Amino acid sequence: MNLKRRQFLFLGSLGTISTGLVGWKLAHQNHHLANIANSAVIAATPPKKDLLLRFTSVADTGTGAKGQYAVAGAMNYYHQQKPYDLVVLAGDNIYNDGEIEKIGAVFERPYKELLTQGVKFHACLGNHDIRTENGDPQIKYPGFNMKGRYYTFRRDAVQFFALDTNRNADWEKQVVWLEEELSRSDAPWKVVFGHDPFYSSGHYGVSQTLIKRFTPLFKQYNVQLYINGHDHHYERTGNIDGTTYLTTGSGAGVRPVGRSQWTEHSADRLAFAAYNVYPDRIEVSAMGTDKRIFDQGVIKFQSA
């Protein structure tokens, strides 16, 4: 925005005035200017005609505290610029013990704006969620759109597979189920999500157990993306045997994160991830609470 010299000097002088009213006016104008700048960043690349699906993901959200509302505000802002109607909610939906009576405070109110516009959340169970009745109340809660402890659904060219990665999961039955569902799927894009990370440079690190159980199936049936939470940071890996692993566990709080040899980008900041699905690629973006994109990557389509 171009300002005349007098306007610029006037605005600069406002910062030296200590009255609350003038300070508020300056902050309000700066906020408005920042929003204009942010809009330009997001809208710089208009969606191409071959866009198949847009969705977002977030995890470890269920606090009802300031951090969750800040991320929800960024999700609302992104929805205004790039409409979407699907959110992958990757576990720890209700802190600390999965008490369903908290659902209003930790889900319905923070995401009210999205929910009233028809955005659907598809959840999976985290380790905190199973502390009350093994997570059954959340499975039955309509707003989480869960069909069971693990389930699948399809949106356009993308088939999603939700896993129960908790230690008390029925692993044998679940692995058989996943292989059957993957083998019969004709969706070009296959996205799996669960609470626990396979590859993480944060607190929980790499899970050899999950890698041994599931990655042979990911490779055999061409799963291109796995989304998780549990570690409270953002991290995107490179292509690991055909699959990109993406941690979006900073939906309400953060922990420190490092880097590994397979890390494309990592950040210990409040954030969510957004995905634009095309026939030949998925474009991944990460947005912080300042409503700016701080990471972008591309998952290229590779047929099985």
UniProtKB/TrEMBL annotation:
<dbReference type="GO" id="GO:0016787">
    <property type="term" value="F:hydrolase activity"/>
</dbReference>
<protein>
    <submittedName>
        <fullName>Metallophosphoesterase</fullName>
    </submittedName>
</protein>
<keyword id="KW-0732">Signal</keyword>
<dbReference type="InterPro" id="IPR029052">
    <property type="entry name" value="Metallo-depent_PP-like"/>
</dbReference>
<dbReference type="InterPro" id="IPR004843">
    <property type="entry name" value="Calcineurin-like_PHP"/>
</dbReference>
<dbReference type="InterPro" id="IPR051558">
    <property type="entry name" value="Metallophosphoesterase_PAP"/>
</dbReference>
<feature type="domain" description="Calcineurin-like phosphoesterase">
    <location>
        <begin position="54"/>
        <end position="234"/>
    </location>
</feature>
<keyword id="KW-0378">Hydrolase</keyword>
<dbReference type="Pfam" id="PF00149">
    <property type="entry name" value="Metallophos"/>
</dbReference>
